[in-house]
Design brief:
61% helix; mainly alpha; 5 helices; single chain; 2 strands; Multidrug-efflux Transporter Regulator, Chain: A, Domain 2
Length: 116
């Protein structure tokens, strides 16, 4: 789920780009729009969706709760509604950082494997 906050200057993302970021179908994103009122990309001519970075963060929350933590849709809706202090976002940041550290350690392990 790579969206580089520092280098990426795009203002809008297509539904296919967002689907690719999260490795989910466009159909699932459209379904989540109906189930989670916090996800509301702009619709331009012919219903084409344009996701902002804020929309993508909302998708990231839903993805984390439903796909990674295994919550039901109702459970995820309730958690998002109650999450005034940003606990879900902090959880996501910690998980992303741990994944990054794991990748770095795996790369180091591969390099060391050639030295032994």
């Amino acid at each position: 789920m790579a969206l580089n906050k520092n280098k990426d200057l795009k203002m809008f993302y297509s539904i296919s780009e967002v689907a690719q970021i999260f490795k989910v179908s466009e159909t699932l994103l459209r379904f989540w729009e109906k189930e989670f009122p916090t996800i509301h990309p702009q619709k331009v001519g012919r219903g084409i969706r344009q996701y902002t970075k804020a929309d993508i963060e909302q998708v990231r929350q839903v993805y984390h709760l439903v796909k990674e933590r295994g919550m039901t849709l109702q459970g995820a809706r309730d958690m998002i509604k109650r999450d005034k202090g940003g606990v879900v976002n902090r959880d996501i940041e910690v998980i992303e950082r741990l994944k990054s550290i794991r990748s770095e350690l795996q790369a180091i392990g591969k390099n060391l494997g050639g030295l032994v």
